[in-house]
Amino acid sequence: MDSKVASFISSHAIPWIAAAVFFHISVATTSFAADSFSTDGHTVLSSPPDGRIQNRPYQMNRLTKIGGESKHSERILGLYGDEMIIYSPSGTIEDVVDGPYSHACAAFDPETETVFLGSSISGGDGIYSLHLGQEDWKSEYQNLTAVGRLAEVENNLQQLANQVEQFSRPDYQTAVKPTTIVTGGSAEEIGEDFLSRHDYENVCFVQYNLFTEDYDRDILAAPWSTKGETRHKYDFSAAQIIAFAREREERKEPFALWAGHGNDPFYMQLRTIEGILEAAPTMAKAFVFPEMERTDEAMEYAVRTHLIPIAELCRQHGTAKVVLRNKNIFWNASCYLDLWRETLLGDKYRDVFVPSMEETNGRTQTISLSGRMGLWLCGYFDVLSARAVTDNANFSRFWEWGAQQNQTHLMRSLAMRTALGAETCLVNIDQGDPRDLATFYQMLDKGIITPPDPEDLLSVSDLCLGMKTPASRFLEHGKNGHATSLYAPREEPMVFDRMDCYWGDALTDDADFSNYAMGSRRRMLNSLLTNPYGLIASVPADIDLSEHSRFREKLVTDGEFFYNKHCRSVSAREYKETAVAALERSATRLPIRVEGDVAWVVSRINKTHIRITLIDPGYVSPADRDATIVLQHVQGASCRDILSGKSLPITQGRISLTVPAGVLRIVDISIE
């Protein structure tokens, strides 16, 4: 970097950014308008509706003052995803310019009339300059090219795409498990984006639609009789919805429906859902219900009169699933409370209910994955689901970053979850190009990544975490996505701690189990686990290990305390030494272990071949990662990178390699 530029950034950018944060936090943005407020509540900029501004969900308009000292030349520059918005001081929108990337911040140097743009939030490390005195500066913004780390990531992604295109499945891999991708709003959209570019044999694409029905809600009990969602119109008739389903059946177009939400599980009447299933018994694939965590009387009514009957109808009419896209620590805590334990943790609906996640405004992805994996491995669910959505990059509503134009973070997260066993992926892309995930879909189709059966997943520790009825403190803080009032200084750390919204990006306590056992060093974007001891699955505490050969040892917790062999509570800090000793014992029993800062999954392809998926864990901070595969209880005859085709040497049972920034490597080991 030029020394003058570096000096300017050092002395000017940080003060400007600090001043802009004030605007960023207080900017309220709708589809077409924006307002900014000062700390005392006064409006400092009010922008009227403007059709040039696109709807950018869950990311903030970052404002920077630009121009000369006179009011005549002063302007406000807004970075709103990949859009650059130019405002007059009064808030009138003068221009909207689309660019190829979303940037972290901006700083203006009045001496040179230059705007410096901070790095791309997709993981870049470059600084870009726009000289406002030049007539073509807007064109320069529209045509920015990646530099530094982001350019490296883009090159790695292109190389991966080329390798996937040329890949031929090895003779010893005879089967590819079918997978389902729920994405796009129509068969035409799916066809244009994906099916016209590749012939898929093992991936089923399912369109995702929303209908909210106009019906007399007096048939429901309070509060649902008068409570809908303000974001929806409720303007479809039952006949229209059923006609849509019938048309999909006739056209052989698979579809899934967003059927309810924790704010209103009753988007449609039960009889309308029955009509959908009768009209489309083979094409209706799923009913999706996000954020159904509550356990109050109103939710119990919804579960017993609506959700469970839907599960029964799915079984009667075809093979549709009910996908529970729940949030925060549901799969570690709320599912162990009476209502959900009775509904989900029995054998009755294991073939219908599918555990999935809403990981937006989330800081506990590591913990949640442990919970879902444990329930699946113990047989409480037949199918696992993965999810990718633009909003996943937001770990706090105080400062939103969900505008990545490059989809490498979502691709890697989906790759890990499918390598762990997820057969269904829910994908909603609002920023960037959804076709960026085509390489991942082709990896599924060709069997490069194929979801293993539970017994073929070899990177799960035989030490499990047994979850008792969750402690009230664990529940309160684990579900706190918005309230700052719960903060109390110098509290004794819990087994899982610092989960609230105000801990976003904070370091985890060194006594936190997710810190030392799962590799979660910060409360942000923990979607790609490094699992230094193998994946630690969370299971019901009362599970009988003698009936589950996968697990040999169990640590018991309620999320706040551990419980020793005498059933007495022990603090997280006091119990850490005992827990670490158990983790180290179990890790020595893994057939294969991976050392280094990588996310990893080991699965069995057949009796003589093991596949290891190694992933760059930097969700929005990609980098080259060194890793060492350690063969502990298998004898490796050879090792081959299945994408590059190159053989890797095995030296004293160890294989060293580097995972390129923003992507992954997959190796097969032939065992003796």
Description:
The chain has an eight-stranded parallel sheet with strand order 16-15-14-13-12-11-18-17. The radius of gyration is 26 Å and the shape is globular. The chain has 672 residues and is an alpha/beta fold. The relative contact order is 0.09. It has 14 helices and 30 strands. The protein has four domains: 3-146, no CATH class; 174-453, Alpha-Beta Barrel (TIM Barrel); 463-589, no CATH class; 594-671, Sandwich (Immunoglobulin-like), CATH 2.60.40.1180.
Helix and strand topology:
Blueprint: H1 3-26, E1 28-29, E2 34-37, E3 43-47, E4 62-66, E5 75-80, E6 83-87, E7 93-98, E8 106-109, E9 114-117, E10 128-131, H2 137-142, H3 148-166, E11 179-182, H4 187-195, E12 203-210, H5 238-251, E13 255-258, H6 270-279, E14 284-290, H7 297-316, E15 321-327, H8 338-344, E16 353-358, H9 365-377, E17 385-389, H10 408-419, E18 424-428, H11 438-446, E19 463-467, H12 472-478, H13 513-516, E20 538-540, E21 553-557, E22 562-563, E23 569-570, H14 572-588, E24 592-596, E25 599-606, E26 609-615, E27 625-631, E28 636-641, E29 654-659, E30 664-671
Parallel strand pairs: 11-12, 11-18, 12-13, 13-14, 14-15, 15-16, 17-18, 19-20, 19-21
Antiparallel strand pairs: 1-2, 2-3, 4-5, 5-6, 6-7, 8-9, 9-10, 21-22, 22-23, 24-27, 25-26, 26-30, 27-29, 28-30
Helix pairs in contact: 3-11, 5-6, 6-7
